[in-house]
Amino acid sequence: MNDRPLSALPSRAARTVAFGAIVVSGFAGGTIGYALVDVQCDGVCATSSGVAMLIGATSFAAGIAVVAVLGLRAMGEWRERGDQQVQ
Questions:
Q1: pTM, entire model
Q2: Helical pair 46-86 and 12-40, crossing angle rounded to 10 deg
């Protein structure tokens, strides 16, 4: 019999992968936002590019964070159901 306490908490590896996905998506969103404004702008556009980079990074990271949380919750529920069936 398994001696670990019952928990719906996902594994550490799953949480680490979710965090990594959020960071990578934030970086990708920032790059896309910066490039989008940089391509369209003539002259000095540091402020516009920076704002677009911030908006892109925040929106991409927030979107992936929602998906990651939903995925981690689903994993937790599956684990909890499996634990209940074993008992």
A1: 0.80
A2: 160
Percent of the chain exceeding pLDDT 90 equals 62
Distance CA 33, CA 47 (A): 12
The residue behind tokens 């928990």 is 7
Token pair of 25 as six digits: 């998506």
Provide the CA 16 distance to its chain's centre, in angstroms.
Answer: 10
Say how far residue 81 (Cα) sits from the centre of its chain.
25
22 and 1 Cβ atoms separated by less than 8 Å: no
For the chain, the structural domain boundaries read: 18-80
Q: How many residues does the chain have?
A: 87
CA dist., res. 56 & res. 30, Å (int)? 5
Average pLDDT value for residue range 60-65: 97
